[in-house]
Amino acid sequence: MSILVEIENRFRHALAGLTDNPGPLLEMLRRSQDARFGDYQANFAMPLGKQLGRPPRDVAAEVVAKLNLDDFCLPPEIAGPGFINVRLRDEWLARRLAAAAADPRLGVATVAQPRTVVVDFSAPNVAKPMHVGHIRSTVIGDSLCRTLRFLGHHVISDNHIGDWGTQFGMIIYGYRRFLNQQGYCAAPVQELARLYRLVRQLMDYQDAKRELALGAVAGEKASVTEALISAKASAVGEVEKSAKKKAAKEVRRLEEKLAELEERQQGLLAKVAALEGDAAMARIVADPEHESIGEAVLTETAKLHAGDAENLRLWREFLPPCLDEIDRTYQRLNVSFDHALGESFYHDRLGPIVDELLRSGVARQSEGAVCVFFPDHDVPMLIRKKDGAFLYATTDLATLRYRIEQWNPAAILYVVDFRQSMHFRHLFATARRMGYGDVDLEHVSFGTVLGEDGRPFRTRAGDTVGLESLLDEAVRRAHGVVSANDDAKPGGPELSPEDRQRIAETVGIGALKYADLSQNRTSDYVFSYDKMLAMTGNTGAYMQYAYARVRSIFAKGKIDMDSLANCGESIRLDTPAERALGLELLRFGEAVEAAVRDYRPNQLTGYLFELAGLYSTFYETSPVLKAETEALRRSRLLLCDLTARTIRQGLELLGIDVVEKM
Ligand code: ARG
Q1: Is any atom of ligand 1 closer than 6 Å to the C-beta of 120?
Q2: Residue 2 in contact with ligand 1 by CB distance below 6 A
Q3: Which residue of 105, 193, 508, 618 has the fewest CB atoms within a 10 Å radius of its CB?
Q4: Does 505 sit in the ligand 1 pocket, CB within 6 Å?
Q5: Which three-class secondary structure state does DSSP give residue 564?
Q6: Does 125 reside within a domain?
Q7: Atom 5 (ligand 1) nearest CA
Q8: Which of 88, 105, 122 is the endpoint of a domain?
Q9: pTM of the full predicted structure?
Q10: 641-654: string of b/e by CB count within 10 Å (b at 16+)?
């Protein structure tokens, strides 16, 4: 049990006669930011005093009188308007640390009631290059799996690969018309990706042409311009202050709208001009065959889904090399799955589930299509189109049912982009109507990865950035950082070229993962190689360096940790730096619990960063190998070792490897 939970339990007892609902009050228990206020602080006497109509200090005094913390804390103090400050006993801390040092789990217990949790993450769409958006899902999902497992939950990871979508209709279309046979034999996935991009371009071109021909944007521009003129005129006419303000606001709104339309129109024109200006592409787009490429692609996809022999054969040919390619990326990232049941796995289950939802009245026909309607939501969830085609949502319903029947989980986590929020709201609401009310369904959503210009991260050419090239670049730059660091060592470089390469791979990929995991997952974040590979600040490179630095003490002193661990030495926390480090080491369990509570790995990175900082202070103020006495030397070595192991375990829960030297 973490210290915080232990203290919470004692406070819960003490609060028994004072409130029926201690939960929110106990949530106000915090670690103190300042050692003067003890190690932990309870600030609930103010709200509780208000509830009871009594002075907060009185309430605090009553709680303290009932509180039984004696076995591990000094008598609590009441400060200011009613803060209760709790300080852990040094002897108790030292004992707990010795126990943690002797425990491979570092003193973190597994949960009393393990749950079965399905984690749906990564889920790229194959045959399209995996892009930077998928890295967030992959990295966050993997870390959550590791952390939940560490706490003793039964985790089932399932990669819901997009292997059955329109992209196959696109590739089949391209394959029949534009295949470069030689390229395909040499590097099939690259050739398929090229075909995908080519068909995408042609489709976008046709869409743009059609939109321009319809003149919808131009028409809208004209009417907004007209509205703007009259809004401006009436703004001039207004005399009353608030009316004037309102009119000005309307003018601004219309101006923005106009700028948006202008940008849209320019974008369409640019898209068309770009293809027509490229000699090879111009020839292709001029061919009337591709005018209805959009419908043709849908037809190919529909034929595949209907079991057309030739399209199915092509799909079976395309899929294995695509999956191999993705697997290589997973291997490099050290990510694995218990299952990878892609969309195609559920194909036969889509018809039956729609029929059943119709029968049970959860879904109904609407203008030839089948939809689930929600009382509190305007937009329904479409599960079968008029032409009989099934949708993403249909597959997700079939997947949900399969998982529940197969694994009977307590929770299913979907680690997916926030842009799919509405989809998951609909999915979860439908699940409840299907009678799956007991399963805890969570959309663990995340924001967008931005480029330094603040827009979604793209290559110069405007394509999304492929994951593979991202990894290569991170490793290349990490090599530079590792080499510079090694070259600058006082005694000259220590690493062989092979060492440098191996370390660069670990540091580069670790930096990439850490940069992602250390963000609040719901925010967007700006992708920057320089920032993620900085050797100072809350970065993966810094954490790996911190680990290697602690380990170097053992190498330098030729210390055999095993004999040290068994020497029965007690840990001493005489200086403030030792005590602060010791307490932080014991808070590891708290950080792990916090990381799964809201599914936020940044709770763990934040903890590790703080730990590394406290270690630095300890190291600067407390000689280890040259400690005054042998007993103190051993005690400090135990703290160093526990620090190294905690960093290593913490990074492992983030899916990040350590290096012994850097
Ligand atoms: N393939 C989807 C995409 O790339 C993500 C799938 C997420 N999982 C799910 N069960 N819907 O956007």
Answers
A1: yes
A2: no
A3: 105
A4: no
A5: helix
A6: no
A7: 123
A8: 88
A9: 0.90
A10: bbbbbbbbbbbbbb
